[in-house]
Amino acid sequence: DEEHHIDFLETQLDLIQRIGLELYTQKHVGGLESGD
Q1: 16 contacts 24 by C-beta, under 8 angstroms
Q2: Which of 7, 16, 21, 33 has the most CB atoms in a 10 Å sphere around its CB?
Q3: What is the pTM of this model?
């Protein structure tokens, strides 16, 4: 669903603005490495 995808992206962008790109990247890269 395109609307859901847009909502997801807007949520991710808001998260990046709040915690910063560095923390956001660490969270997602770390999650991938740990198999989370």
Answers
A1: yes
A2: 16
A3: 0.62
pLDDT band at 30 (very low <50, low <70, confident <90, very high): confident
For the purposes of burial, counting CB atoms within 10 Å of the CB of 30, is it exposed (0-12), middle (13-18) or buried (19 or more)?
exposed
Q: Given CA atoms 24, 27, 31, 32 in this order, what sign does their dihedral have?
A: positive
**Dist. CA 7–CA 13, nearest whole Å:** 10
Tens of pLDDT, residues 2-24: 999 999 999 999 999 999 999 99
